[in-house]
Design a protein that fits this description.
Length: 137
């Protein structure tokens, strides 16, 4: 599944820096795709869980009435889990990209809302339960 995520990130980055885009947009897209550096610890995973509940769960929880889950279900048609907490295909780079750049109905989150450390923690939480094979695809 990781190639699918990488392709999606690449496509979004290309769309953001397509014809007529500024060099600043290209730099922003490249920075947004930079790997998240923090190593996951039990404390960062727990902090990420709490931050996910605060910032993400209202749109990405299971069931109807959650626009992020609904959008992912429509996009992937069941090929990957539409509930982010159940997925294994996102890595920290993709999570950082979507949080900072948004997608479709998902808003962007500025560093004044979710700072880089908090974003690292959210990524640690969402990637902590990945099976070992999925981490190295």
């Amino acid at each position: 599944m990781k190639p699918l995520v990488n392709l999606l990130v690449l496509a979004l980055g290309t769309a953001a820096v397509g014809p007529g885009a500024t060099a600043g947009a290209a730099d922003a897209a490249a920075q947004a795709q930079a790997p998240v550096a923090q190593a996951a610890t039990p404390a960062s995973i727990e902090a990420g869980r709490q931050l996910y509940q605060r910032w993400c769960l209202s749109c990405h929880a299971a069931g109807p009435g959650h626009p992020g889950t609904t959008a992912l279900d429509a996009l992937y048609k069941g090929a990957v889990p539409s509930v982010l907490e159940q997925g294994t295909s996102l890595d920290a780079t993709a999570i950082a990209y979507f949080v900072r750049n948004g997608r479709s109905t998902m808003p962007t989150f500025r560093k004044s809302e979710i700072d880089d450390r908090e974003l690292d923690d959210i990524a640690a939480y969402l990637t902590a339960r990945k099976p070992k094979a999925a981490q190295h695809e």
